[in-house]
Write a structure and sequence with these properties.
The chain is mainly beta. Helix content is about 5%, strand content about 45%. The protein has helices at about 260, 300-310; strands at about 10, 25-35, 40-45, 55-60, 70, 85-95, 100-110, 115-120, 130-135, 140-145, 150-160, 170-175, 185-190, 200-205, 210, 215-225, 225-235, 245-250, 270-275, 285-290, 295-300. Strands 14, 15, 16, 17 and 18 form a 5-stranded antiparallel β-sheet that branches. A 4-stranded antiparallel β-sheet has the order 1-21-20-19. The protein has a 4-stranded antiparallel β-sheet with strand order 2-3-4-5, with no helix packed on it. The protein is globular, with a radius of gyration of 18 Å.
Amino acid sequence: MSTRELFARHAGNPILTSADWPYPVNAVFNPAAAIIGDETLILARVEDLRGISHLSVARSSNGVDDWTIEPEPLLAPLEGIESEEWGFEDPRVVWIPELGRWSITCTSYGPPGPAVYLALTDDFRTVDRQGVIKGADDKNAALLSERIGGKWILFHRPSHEAAAGSSGEIALSRSDDLASWSAPELVLAPREGAWWDSRRVGIGPPPLRTDHGWLIIYHGVKDTVSGGLYRIGLALADLDEPTHITHRLPEWILGPQAPYERVGDVGNAIFPCGLIHDEAGGGLRMYYGAADTSIGLATADLEDLLAAVLAAPTI
């Protein structure tokens, strides 16, 4: 099996589009995902007809179809708050056992630029807004589910405060209280030259804890004469020191091929934010934005992903 075939697209893709929404919108994409009770929940980025995004909840008993979509956004910009004036984008969610709550990290966008925003929720029906935790320009943020060395760990992509003196890499910061964060430390940088992830990289869904390390599913971008090309790759980070990448797969494992991934508001883009692991069976469901226009679903076996990335050269 080619590593590019590790994820299989669902035959019914795209599983959600703007036509499914109960009110007029331009596009739905880049969804986080969670299991709540016996339902799959996705928290989608929804772009309205002004071009401003909010976050909206959809629920399904099987995570594939028959979605019930909330008639009102879960997280939308409040009037008079500059940092969120232009909306909320690209959420990631993770269950935090220590808090007994779900965290939502997303991009808050306003005149200062994109920033990392944190909210907490018990049920995805109401949220406690914690506010901006990493100022502009910063985005693509995901929390680890547990502390490491007594510190919370936030993966993110800073632009001006970049750990390696450039923009485009994955970094992490540490915190005692989820409010004050350390300076970014480099985790994963773009590869130079003609590589598929040579322009920039960003975290996908929150990293998944495995016996071999934190499994990182990330997006990589390559500049082409037709614009940026977004594809998906794998890496493993050390469980005790996640700045240490132990393995990084050379090849991308999922790239835009289907028409709904190639044509849309931002063509040739696959952008995953949600991952659900069936611990009993080992299966993975990855929910992703397709061409910044619709939502796709792809499935894989965790053991297949681990076997592929563990066979990659050590770093």
